[in-house]
Amino acid sequence: MKFHSLCAGVLACALLLVGCDNSSSTQATPLVLEGKTMGTFWRVSLAGIDAARADDLRKKIQAQLDGDDRLLSTWKNDSALMRFNRSASTQPWPVEEAMSDIVTLSLRIGAKTDGAMDITVGPLVNLWGFGPARQPVKTPDEAQIAAAKAQTGLQHLSVINRAGRQFLQKDLPGLFVDLSTVGEGYAADHLARLMEQEGISRYLVSVGGALASRGTNPQGNPWRVAIQKPTDQENAVQAIVDINGHGISTSGSYRNYYELDGKRLSHVIDPATGRPITHKLVSVTVISPTALEADGWDTGLMVLGPEKAKAVALKEGLAVYVVTKEAEGFSVWMSPPFRTFLVSEKN
After folding, report:
1. pTM, whole model, 2 decimals?
2. 3-state secondary structure the chain
3. What average pLDDT does this structure show over 306-331?
4. Could you read off the pLDDT of 218-271 as tens digits, one per residue?
5. Percentage of residues in the chain with pLDDT exceeding 90?
6. What is the pLDDT of residue 268?
7. pLDDT tens digits, residue range 77-110?
8. How far is Cα 17 from Cα 19, in angstroms, rounded to an integer?
9. CA-CA distance, 81 to 71, in Å (whole number)?
């Protein structure tokens, strides 16, 4: 068995910052801070900020992201999410407002994608070797898949708001909630709020494949982001967008996979079949008001496949960029709202 992944997060390098020149002038280049979190990488680019603030900002950023990881991680047994997952209780379980908000949005997107975006798919993710459990040494059989599917389903999870307190409730004791599909988006938005609290109004922040921005870059131009081509070649650009204060996220099947029994298995699991996706859709990029929304939509659309993803994008008025594998090369489709963000496309 051969495993391929640039990082534990999904497509950590699928979106690239562009548009800042390489001048040595401190006024012409952003202050860039970087680090690791959630099994992937974070990056913060700031305009008009004194480099003397770098160490203090870096510490605050890392501390906040470490807190996000302790809240949402399925890789840490003591995280808030894993305490809920390990409990067999079907009574309301108190959670932080942030987790309640994340789950509420995930359930809404799940409903609008006919269950394709399913945060209860954890047992299947683990069965196929993409969760905290070790990778399988052989393909799961029908009985194993059926058993894992029986422990999934958005209908088994509820969010309760009671007198200002937030709760999650499951009606299956073994339900396992996996928020890794939206964790990067939440963390990126959370970083954006931190920048605001620090009095910073010109920034581009990213966690894995999710980004959020505000204001302009050091040249006074909008922050621009490059969408990478679906290849293993670094910095191969498919398109460039001006995200204009929005969030953006890309999901894809071409970098996080492993080979088992002679087959290449994607990390993207279809809740309907209980198996990794096999269709020809290789990447979906979504631009939304928040990175959390973009991160949730790109996962659901990725599961649906090219035609269903396009239909949902049009119905919901989403800004979506789809890349599909063809017999020779790739084809590209974008929704009308996405065109308003497009700066250029590369062939």
Report:
1. 0.88
2. CEEECCCCCCCCCCEEEECCCCCCCCCCCCEEEEEEECCEEEEEEECCCCHHHHHHHHHHHHHHHHHHHHHHCCCCCCCHHHHHHHCCCCCCEEECHHHHHHHHHHHHHHHHCCCCCCCCCHHHHHHCCCCCCCCCCCCCCHHHHHHHHCCCCHHHEEEEEECCEEEEEECCCCCCCCCHHHHHHHHHHHHHHHHHHCCCCCEEEEECCEEEEECECCCCCECEEEEECCCCCCCCEEEEEECCCCEEEEEECCCCEEEECCEEEECCEECCCCEECCCCEEEEEEEECCHHHHHHHHHHHHHHCHHHHHHHHHHHCCEEEEEEECCCCEEEEECHHHHCCEEEECC
3. 94
4. 999 999 999 887 765 556 788 999 998 999 999 875 444 444 555 556 778 999
5. 69
6. 85
7. 999 999 999 999 999 999 999 999 999 999 999 9
8. 7
9. 6
Buried b (16+ CB within 10 A) or exposed e, 226-258: bbbbbeeeeeeebbbbbbeebbbbbbbbbbbbb
Name residue 345's beta-bridge partners.
Answer: 239
The structure tokens listed for 71 are 């809240």
Q: What is the mean pLDDT of residues 134-162?
A: 90
Residues 6+ apart with CB under 8 A from 36: 42
Residue 266: closest CA among 44, 208, 274, 275: 275
134 token code pair? 């070790």
Q: 334 — phi, psi (to 5°)?
A: -135, 145
What's the whole-number mean pLDDT along residues 20-44?
A: 77
β-pair type (330-334, 319-325): antiparallel
Domains of the chain: 2-72+181-345 (3.10.520.10), 80-179 (1.10.3980.10)
Tokens found for residue 221? 């131009």
CB 133 within 8 A of CB 167: no
